[in-house]
Design a protein that fits this description.
Layout lengths: L3 E4 L3 E3 L2 E3 L14 E6 L7 E6 L4 E7 L2 E6 L4 E6 L4 E5 L4 E5 L6 E6 L8 E2 L2 H8 L1
Antiparallel strand pairs: 1-9, 2-3, 4-11, 5-10, 5-12, 6-9, 6-11, 7-8, 7-10
The structure holds dTDP-4-keto-6-deoxyglucose (T46).
């Protein structure tokens, strides 16, 4: 499945807003792990890897950042700047994150537990594997 933006339903009322995310309803896989990235220093780029199997949905629940996604054939840059929109990233997609705002909190839901052997951290290896 290609990288896709997912709009979440906002339960808003006069008290404010609430978003609930459920596996196989809002998130297209079993959610086995959640992590979040925050306090990212100015001008830092993170990521620089692809995953062999992992699927993820990333959402900026505060602030904003940009994903560069590369499937080996084409690249796209996607700005996440609202808690009501998530970015689905499947396997075999090289990703880099940059232009974090100072207050950015990037929440990521993942289809599996942390496993370093699922990472492809060398770009040439990635290109070889997707070619
Ligand atoms: C991804 C992008 C969007 C853990 O111990 N458990 C975890 O679940 C994760 C995600 C990381 N770590 C450790 C491994 C490293 O020592 O935390 C440290 C930082 O991880 P990493 O350098 O991989 O972080 P990013 O921001 O480059 O990438 C992360 C995810 O690892 C990755 O799956 O797709 O965010």
């Amino acid at each position: 499945m290609q990288p896709t933006l997912i709009d979440f339903n906002i339960h808003g009322d006069d008290r404010g807003s609430l978003i609930a995310l459920e596996q196989h309803k809002d998130i297209p896989f079993d959610v086995k792990r959640v992590y979040y990235i925050f306090d990212t220093k100015a001008d830092v780029r993170r990521g620089f890897h692809a995953h062999k199997h992992l699927e993820q949905v990333a959402v900026c629940i505060k602030g904003a950042c940009t994903f560069k996604l590369d499937d080996g054939k084409s690249q796209q840059h996607i700005r996440l700047d609202t808690p009501s929109r998530g970015l689905y990233i499947g396997n075999s997609v090289w990703r880099e994150m940059y232009d974090f705002t100072e207050n950015c909190v990037l929440l990521v839901m993942a289809s599996n537990l942390y496993d370093e052997s699922d990472y492809i951290r060398n770009y040439n290896d990635f290109i070889t594997q997707v070619s």
